[in-house]
Amino acid sequence: GESVGLHLPTLSVQEGDNSIINCAYSNSASDYFIWYKQESGKGPQFIIDIRSNMDKRQGQRVTVLLNKTVKHLSLQIAATQPGDSAVYFCAEIPSGTYKYIFGTGTRLKVLA
Amino acid sequence: DAGVTQSPTHLIKTRGQQVTLRCSPKSGHDTVSWYQQALGQGPQFIFQYYEEEERQRGNFPDRFSGHQFPNYSSELNVNALLLGDSALYLCASSLDLIYGYTFGSGTRLTVV
Questions:
Q1: Which residues of A touch B (CB under 8 A)?
Q2: Which of the ends of chain B has fewer CB neighbours closer than 10 A, N or C?
Q3: CA distance A87 to A13
Q4: Which residues from B are below 8 Å from A98, CB to CB?
């Protein structure tokens, strides 16, 4: 069935280090992918997106990598800060649909 | 500029009751999508409304229904509540059917 899963449920990193959050998706027909950040008590907040015709996209301190061969998505956060502590979700949008398929999330903990 | 506004923020209902949740989209947005997020899980797509019509529906029973008004605001109705309906209900708005979602902070529904 359709699913978007994450390899690590919790990731702890030292402040200032780089973080890498991984995600596997199952629908090869998906053509749009998004990373969201969700802080406690808040709704998901858009971080960065990428379309299937791209392999890499960079934002401010964040980079998303897409490997369509192995259906893998990753989010890299440079110089991780305490404010980056949150749950991170990847989401895929299968071609021809309007629904986002979210994974279960990875909790990022930034250690001082 | 107000983002997506949801009301109420929290509510408690008894099994078998009915509930209505409300969403005001971000200014300029005309598309509203609803998601259910169980504790510790990623959001699950319920349905999307555009031009006052349901455009797509996820795997939710008919107990879940919705409506979009001419001013683009939306309601989510759930009938015959079950304990398993306890979740955070998220509303997302956009100017496009797929891209540029903005999520609200959600309504926390507890069914007892």
A1: 4, 32, 34, 36, 41-46, 49, 89, 91, 93, 97-105
A2: N
A3: 14
A4: 33, 48, 55-56, 97-98
| Segment B74-107, tens digit of pLDDT | 999 999 999 999 999 999 999 877 777 999 999 9
Contact A97 B56 (CB under 8 A): yes
| Integer-rounded Cα radius of gyration of chain B | 13
CA distance B37 to B91: 11
Residue type, position B29, single letter? H
**From CA A7, how far away is CA B80, in angstroms rounded?**
36
Provide the pLDDT for residue A1. 39
Contact criterion met (CB < 8 Å) for B56 and A4: no
Query: How does DSSP assign A46-110, residue by residue?
Result: EEEEEETT-SEEE-SSEEEEEETTTTEEEEEESS--GGG-EEEEEEEEETT----EE---EEEEE
Residue whose tokens read 């390899």:
A7
Residue A42, CA distances (Å) to A19, B11, B64 in order: 22, 16, 23
Cβ partners under 8 Å of residue A102, min gap 6: A4, A36, A89, A90, A91, B35, B42, B43, B44
Q: Does residue A2 carry a pLDDT above 80?
A: no
